[in-house]
């Protein structure tokens, strides 16, 4: 089996001003840089306004930088949007696409997410494609089928384990303090890997699949210890240096 390097990703969402970014990114950068041989990648996804600021604070540390969304086009008349190429230009190596908050707030369909992921890949970024069922879907026993459909609909042609990361984030676990059981997560991740492998035409064993949804220092080990879980996408707990760092220690 191919060894997959864990990825601990922080999604700051719409939080932070320049001074916060300095404390957070600077604090994490000095800790990561002090590691002799870090056994995990650490990704910071600040709001677009802070991408350049964070880039300055993490330079030379080994931390990697990402956007929280991108437009599907390279440039053009799309007021308020930013492109994958713009993120790349600022030093990003990753971009999150299809986060459930964007799927809900901006009505992003699987087809839209797929186009964004394709743009990310064309720009040379790694697309972190988010998938996950709602509470109603889980209650109706549809979690596996919903996640499979999202993978089939959101992964672009040309997706590989090198240019794609999947993040399983049950919608009902995001920001709520509630989490699925480790058995539930293990079941979804195993299925996600199988489906992604089919869609990609192989290479699924090397694909990193993150768990996200109310990950915190006290529960990180429950998820990060699972066979098919290759890291975490963290929202609230990524806004505190000590908490985010403690989560990474569970790798
Ligand atoms: C997220 O928004 O991707 C997320 C997982 O948030 P939280 O960790 O706060 O649940």
Automatic annotation (TrEMBL):
Domain of life: Bacteria
Predominant location category: cytoplasm
Metabolic or biological pathway: Carbohydrate biosynthesis; gluconeogenesis; Carbohydrate metabolism; erythritol degradation; Carbohydrate degradation; glycolysis; D-glyceraldehyde 3-phosphate from glycerone phosphate: step 1/1
EC number from the UniProt entry: 5.3.1.1
GO biological process: gluconeogenesis; glyceraldehyde-3-phosphate biosynthetic process; glycerol catabolic process; glycolytic process
Any one GO molecular-function label of the UniProt entry: triose-phosphate isomerase activity
Annotated binding of substrate, by residue: 11-13, 175, 214, 235-236
Active site per UniProt: 99, 169
Keywords: Cytoplasm, Gluconeogenesis, Glycolysis, Isomerase
Role of this protein: Involved in the gluconeogenesis. Catalyzes stereospecifically the conversion of dihydroxyacetone phosphate (DHAP) to D-glyceraldehyde-3-phosphate (G3P).
Family: Belongs to the triosephosphate isomerase family.
Assembly behavior: Homodimer.
Protein name: Triosephosphate isomerase
Gene: tpiA
